[in-house]
Amino acid sequence: MKQKRINTLLAVAVIIVASAFTYSSRTSVNSHKEIDLCANLTKIIESGKAGFTDVRGEKSSKKISGKDRPFDLCKVELSEEFKGYISMSASYPTYEVFFATDEWAKITEKLKSAYEEVNGKMKACLPESAWTIEEKDASNDSYLEGTDFKKTIFTEKVGNSAGKKIRMELFMYRHGSENKRVVELKIEGFAAPTE
What we know:
Elements lengths: L1 H23 L12 H12 L7 E9 L2 E8 L10 E3 L6 E9 L6 H17 L5 E6 L13 E7 L10 E9 L4 E9 L7
Antiparallel strand pairs: 1-2, 2-3, 3-4, 4-8, 5-6, 6-7, 7-8
């Protein structure tokens, strides 16, 4: 009887610890969920043309340079591991999401693999007729010289009636405020046109 009670208490303790870990990691996504990167990326891009209004979820915040900054969580997921955030700027809203992070001082195989996978999926999803794609690394970008960082820039070829275009940057670099190496996607949107 005593052993059964101990086993029950241990099981409850494990559940509580697991729940606390999940709750404290608000940016974590269910890693067992299948994500259609192309379909979801298309939804986020289209929503970015109107301030990401359609994909804004619950309010949240993130520490940047030691201060809490307000964000909205994105209702549409691109990463199996991390939630996307949308800035609160009305004029220049930005969507950001990590695909991989690492504490090591150098770019690891894990990060290289994640970068190449996401980069390949994005290129396959976005038609060359509609997007300009630029690959950047130490060989062709002076800001990346002496590093093994990379970035791919995706820019719409044709903008909206005001000439505004969606611009996306996929990075593999050292994230300053996170103080770790990351694979991150940033999508620069714009406010909905006023008529």
